[in-house]
Amino acid sequence: MAEYSDYSYEQMYELLEALHDKYNCEEFIEADPISIPPSFARLEDQEIAGFLAATIAWGNRKAIVKSARRMMQYVSALCVASRLRRLSCRLNRYPYLLP
Questions:
Q1: Is 46 within 8 Å of 38 (Cβ atoms)?
Q2: For the stretch 54-75, what's the b/e string if a residue is b when 16 or more beta carbons lie within 10 angstroms of its beta carbon?
Q3: Which of 27, 37, 38 is nearest to 62 (CA)?
Q4: Number of folded domains in the chain?
Q5: Which domain holds residue 93?
Q6: For the chain, which residues score pLDDT lower than 50?
Q7: Using an 8 Å Cβ cutoff, are 36 and 65 in contact?
Q8: What is the model's pLDDT at position 99?
Q9: If you ran DSSP here, which 8-state letter would residue 84 be given?
Q10: Own/partner pairs, 27-36, CB within 8 angstroms, 24+ separation
Q11: Structure confidence at residue 96 (pLDDT)
Q12: Residue 1 lies in a domain
């Protein structure tokens, strides 16, 4: 395989176009860890999901995506619990609102 620095502009363009066509498609994305962050609505959650998915992104893509989805279930449960605790703390400041 030739060094990339030996490629002409046209060869490099063709290589990059071929790689773009190969990897920029739904079939590739849905089986890739990059599919994990967009499953969250909030940008902050997407950043955390992306970071966590990247920490385990080594090896078989199917196994990585499966593990990342399982991890996100735990993280989602923790986030919900954390939000409920914060809400509870806020409500405790206003006892007249509680039944």
A1: yes
A2: eeebeeeeeebbebbeebbeeb
A3: 27
A4: 1
A5: 8-97
A6: none
A7: yes
A8: 52
A9: H
A10: 31/61, 31/62, 31/65, 32/61, 32/65, 33/57, 33/61, 33/64, 33/65, 33/68, 35/65, 36/65, 36/68, 36/69, 36/72
A11: 61
A12: no
- 93 contact partners, CB below 8 Å, separation of at least 6: none
Nearest alpha carbon to residue 76 among 51, 56, 49, 55: 49
Q: Characterize 5-20 residue by residue with b for buried, 16 or more Cβ atoms within 10 angstroms of its Cβ, and e for exposed.
A: eeeeeeeeeeeeeeee
Model's pTM, two decimal places? 0.51
Residue 81 corresponds to which amino acid?
A
| Of the candidates 32, 99, 23, 20, the residue with the CA atom closest to the CA atom of residue 65 | 32
Q: How far apart are the C-alpha atoms of 33 and 43, rounded to whole Å?
A: 17
What 8-state DSSP symbol labels residue 56? Answer: T
